Amino acid sequence: MRIKQQKTMIKKLNAFLLLSMLFLSTTQTRADKLNIAVASNFAHSLHALAEDFESKTSHQVRISRASTGKLYTQINHGAPFDILLAADERRPDKLIAKGKASAELSAVYATGKLVFISQLNPAEDCQEALNNPVVKRLAIANPKTAPYGLAAQQTLEKLQLWKTLQPKLVMGENIAQSLQFVSTGNAQAGFVAKSMLLQGTKININCQWDVPAEMHEPIKQKMLVLAKASNKTAAKAFWQYMQSDDAKTIIKNNGYDVP
């Protein structure tokens, strides 16, 4: 009787070990590299999200950053991205219309905030720097390729300053370059993403004006899984992760509103 019990226990142990090996094998098979294209304003936040995502899964994230317009062009030319984290809705919606992504795997993941910054010491209000003749160069991202640049243009149009200030404009390829222009002194003032002021990097500015949301169209930033990655395990996992409370907390802590 004792020998029979021992044989039964050995069989169960062998079965358990076999199941464990199969589980480990499946986990390793599903581990994948994920190529994410991200708008420059959200790159810092994505690094924090990717670190958290990788700690929770076996997947690895590779990040490519540029302006939304540039990433859109690269995707249309076959760039090997799995996911796009854009800084607007327009370009993702165009990719969906072209069949390069599915509407079911797209959603607004953050709403950005525009900030005006200046190296000048304001007498009362930082916004006054827009009319200060000392400001010879005003940095914004290119409105044609960068949603934050478009928001800056709409703000200046609302203030009836767009035409007046055009000779002073220094346009960055993306919002990160606009911040660089101001922080290095190549421009005395400029419009940037609020999230970029929360990255822990010392920036040489003396004042900031949080642009009211009603001054421009909402900067709704949309995420989508590209069609060729719709069945990719890592892409699905990241899509689900971005809906989680942990991901939303990280996004909010980086200066965005979340849906």
What does this protein structure show overall?
The protein is of the alpha/beta class and 259 residues long. The protein has helices at 2-30, 43-56, 68-76, 90-97, 147-158, 162-165, 175-183, 233-241, 245-253, and strands at residues 33-39, 60-66, 83-85, 101-112, 114-118, 138-141, 169-172, 189-193, 207-210, 219-226. The termini are far apart. Mean pLDDT is 88; it is low at 15-29.
Strand fraction band?
15-25%
Helix content: 25-40%
| β-strand number | 10
Architecture per CATH nomenclature, i.e. the level-2 architecture of the largest domain = 3-Layer(aba) Sandwich
- State the secondary-structure class: alpha/beta
User: Briefly, what CATH class of the largest domain?
Assistant: Alpha Beta
Instruction: For the largest sheet, list the strands in their spatial order.
Output: 2-1-3-10-4
**Shape, principal axes of CA atoms:** elongated
Low-confidence stretches: 15-29
> What distance separates the N and C termini?
64 Å
How many structural domains? 2
The total count of helices amounts to 9
**Rg, nearest Å:** 24 Å
